[in-house]
Specification:
InterPro entries: Memb_transporter_dom (IPR049453). It is found in: Cell membrane. This is Integral membrane bound transporter domain-containing protein. Keywords: Cell membrane, Membrane, Transmembrane, Transmembrane helix. It is a multi-pass membrane protein. This protein has 755 residues and is mainly α. The chain contains 28 helices and no strands. The radius of gyration is 30 Å and the shape is elongated. The chain starts with a helix and ends with a helix.
């Protein structure tokens, strides 16, 4: 997998270098009429880099979509510029203080619509800076005013066309082929995990089993990344093949099948991770036959050689049922879902990323989106306006670069502002230094000065994937070198490089100022607030599960919607935690406890998955068996959890340390997730909220009821299959609810230790 990734990145690096080479050859050695039209070669390079070093790895469909976005941005900028010239006049736009105001107003107009993509906005921002700073540089005395947007459009089109040629030569890079590679890569990953599952079941001791389970978990993380790539490439198929818009059901089948496969693979992994002792008492041949159906399903082999009458013919004896055997039954349950004996995965696994569609939520979402659009537009307006103002004040002739630096940095959501600014500044400095060194080496061979660009552009593609620089550092380092080595007649390279670094610093300062003014809350603060929303969502899921257990034949749509809500909050917490970990430490502000929050995220993800497995079990039981005992135990657990969450809220509202110590003694709490250590050793035997004992008691009582049901059940051969399936579903349901309770307790333990 690692070799495949390196080859893919090398291919992208070569195509990116080819696109830049096309722009360089055109602007340096192309026909004179063409060079007279594309008078802003720097913006041609910038357009190319924004397309090829974006967050997603481009394919033909993606580049085609980017060309459409670039065209829309160009028409948008031309319309705004023409209106401003007719209303204000070129002479007024040439005033140094009027140009920044015009940039701010135009940026707000471009940024506010939600229908345009981020690339459209960034290209439009850059074009706006070019147009209005040009008016300021020439004091409004621009020859052929209405030709200015044409020159900007031609320069932008050159970068877009070069990108399109690079993705087609020497052979097209299609989303369909990338999707096929991703599916093959996922199948190899899943088969490797199945082999690990066999080794785990046959492990001689717990230590060996835990090592193998950890390896399977790392493969599972890689599989999730592969599935995300497959989803991205699937969305691009419509741009490569318009007919796929009318064949959505057929095209989505493969993606849904992979989602269902991963859903069951995660269940098998959870089951093995819950086993208390190894080996599990199964022979290798028995395990191999057991996993034949999943292996056939993943490898797309012909129908399984397993005879239909061999399915679900086993029934655990009442004496063999125990709390330690529940994970094994859940493992078998997931295997039977692969065989197609249970239909729930076709109903529920598609809903993993489901959205809750109540009218109140949609109304709240529309209000939130309107507010978010205004905040983003205001941030863009302030940042770009200030950057252009200070850039012109420092160096009027090179005032473009401060605004362009901000234009390629703005995003609609949150980002680690200081980290991004630092990466962009370092990338600008490195690219400029590389360009100056190449200028010194090729001082007497100025015609071939563009050749060292090719290896540097390739290097920036790999730099884009590094943890140190990331996408911001890779983009700015590529642009910095291109502006020095890929152009002519801009003055002394050293003077230009120094001036541009200063202008870029001005732009980044304005970028940071705009981010801080509009979104002053740190990601760590928001992560702590989002954790509270996650706990509330867990409570809602357990409450919905109680209702489903109490009422027979109750629709599970409420539980699914609560699980979808929990899943969305978990994803938000993951994003905020990742951003918070990239934030620099600030004195007098408590940093995020990375270890604790990562553990909480793992447990929350498992709780979200377990809710779906519970949906499976309840759907297959179809209300055939009363679950009053389950409802009673869950209701008791829910009340304990609610009181614990309420206590945490009261603690969070306690501001001073003295009041906090009083509250700790009052509530008998001695641990804080942010501190990571105990604060009072006098309460070591105290308890607050749910504990692992609750989950253990539930498992014991559930197994007791299951034994009674198994002993009483008897019937004909036809009823035997139904009996086996029901027993398997009940065993799996008991395991999932018990494990859900355990993971919830682990979450509360990480947040606040009960002693």
């Amino acid at each position: 997998m690692r070799d495949t990734t390196c080859l893919e990145r090398l291919s992208l690096a070569l195509r990116t270098a080819l696109a830049c080479l096309i722009v360089s050859l055109t602007t340096l050695y192309g026909p004179k009429p063409l060079k007279n039209w594309a008078t802003f070669p720097a913006f041609s390079y910038l357009t190319t880099i924004l397309i090829w070093l974006s967050d997603a790895e481009p394919t033909y469909g993606e580049v085609l979509k980017c060309c459409v976005d670039v065209s829309y941005a160009t028409f948008q900028t031309a319309a705004i510029m023409l209106v401003s010239v007719l209303v204000v006049g070129p002479a007024s736009l040439g005033v140094s203080l009027v140009a920044p105001v015009a940039v701010a107003v135009a940026s707000f107009i471009v940024a506010f619509p939600a229908s345009t993509s981020l690339l459209t906005k960034r290209i439009a921002f850059g074009q706006i800076v070019l147009v209005y700073v040009t008016f300021a540089v020439f004091n409004g005395e621009v020859a052929h005013v209405f030709m200015l947007p044409v020159h900007v459009a031609a320069s932008t089109a050159l970068g877009a066309i070069a990108s399109l040629l690079a993705v087609l030569l020497p052979f097209p890079r299609l989303a369909h082929s990338q999707m096929s590679k991703g599916c093959k890569l996922y199948a190899e990953n899943a088969l490797e995990r199945l082999n690990l599952f066999v080794d785990v079941i046959m492990a001689r001791d717990n230590t060996t089993a835990q090592v193998l389970i950890a390896k399977a978990a790392s493969l599972s993380a890689a599989a999730r990344h592969t599935l995300k790539d497959i989803k991205i490439h699937h969305e691009r198929l419509a741009w490569e093949r318009p007919d796929t818009r009318f064949l959505k059901k057929k095209q989505k089948h493969q993606g849904e099948k992979l989602k269902a496969t991963e859903f069951l693979m995660r269940g098998m992994e959870i089951a093995l991770g819950s086993c208390s002792s190894f080996p599990l008492g199964m022979s290798r041949d028995e395990v191999t036959n057991l996993l034949e159906a999943p292996r056939t399903h993943i490898a797309h082999e012909p129908a399984s050689t397993l005879k239909p009458e061999d399915r679900l013919t086993w029934l655990p004896e009442a004496g063999s049922l125990s709390t330690t055997s529940l994970p094994v039954y859940f493992f078998r349950y997931c295997v039977e879902l692969f065989r197609g004996d249970v239909s729930s995965v076709r109903q529920d696994s598609k809903r993993v990323d489901g959205l809750f569609t109540s009218k109140s939520f949609l109304d709240a979402l529309s209000v939130w989106m309107a507010r978010e659009r205004f905040v983003f537009a205001f941030k863009c307006s302030i940042s770009l306006g200030l950057a252009v103002l200070f850039g012109i004040l420092y160096n009027k002739k090179n005032g473009y670069w401060s605004g362009l630096t901000v234009a390629i940095s703005l995003v609609s959501g949150r980002q680690a502002t200081l980290t991004v600014a630092n990466s962009r500044l370092q990338g600008t400095a490195m690219g400029s230094v590389y360009g100056l060194l190449c200028c010194a080496v090729f001082q007497r061979l100025e015609e071939f000065r563009f050749l060292p660009l090719l290896p540097w552009i390739a290097a920036t593609v790999f730099m884009r994937h590094s943890k140190v620089y990331g996408q911001p550092g890779g983009v700015t380092s590529a642009i910095a070198a291109l502006l020095i080595l890929g152009r002519r007649n801009y003055g002394a390279p050293t003077d230009f490089a120094i001036t541009r670094i200063v202008e870029a610093s001005i732009g980044l300062l304005c970028f940071v100022l705009g981010e801080v003014l509009v979104t002053p809350a740190r990601a760590s603060t928001l992560a702590r607030a989002e954790l509270k929303h996650c706990l509330d969502a867990v409570l809602d899921c357990i409450g919905s599960l109680v209702l489903c257990s109490e009422q027979k034949n109750m629709p599970l749509s409420d539980l699914r919607s609560k699980q979808a809500k929990l899943n969305s909050h978990v994803e938000a917490l993951e994003r905020l935690t990742s951003e918070a970990l990239r934030e620099p430490n600030v004195p007098f502000l408590k940093p995020l406890n990375a270890v604790s929050y990562n553990k909480v995220l793992v447990s929350l993800s498992k709780v979200s998955d377990l809710c779906l497995y519970v949906c499976d079990g309840l759907t297959n039981l179809s209300g055939a068996h009363p679950l009053d005992h389950v409802a009673h135990e869950l209701k008791s657990f829910q009340e304990k959890l609610r009181s614990s969450v309420k206590c945490l809220e009261e603690m969070a509202s306690t501001k001073t340390q003295a009041r906090l110590q009083k509250e700790l003694q009052k509530r008998k709490i001695c641990h804080d997730v942010e501190a990571g250590t105990a604060s009072n050793d006098n309460y070591l035997n105290m308890e607050l909220g749910p504990s692992q004992d609750d989950a253990e008691r539930f498992s014991v009582s559930f197994v007791k009821l299951l034994k009674e049901a198994t002993e009483k059940t008897s019937g004909s051969t036809a009823e035997e299959v139904v009996k086996n399936e029901t027993t398997l579903c009940l065993s799996s349901l008991g395991f999932c609810i018990s494990r859900l309770m355990q993971e919830t307790v682990c979450i509360m333990t990480e947040i606040t230790h009960t002693t």
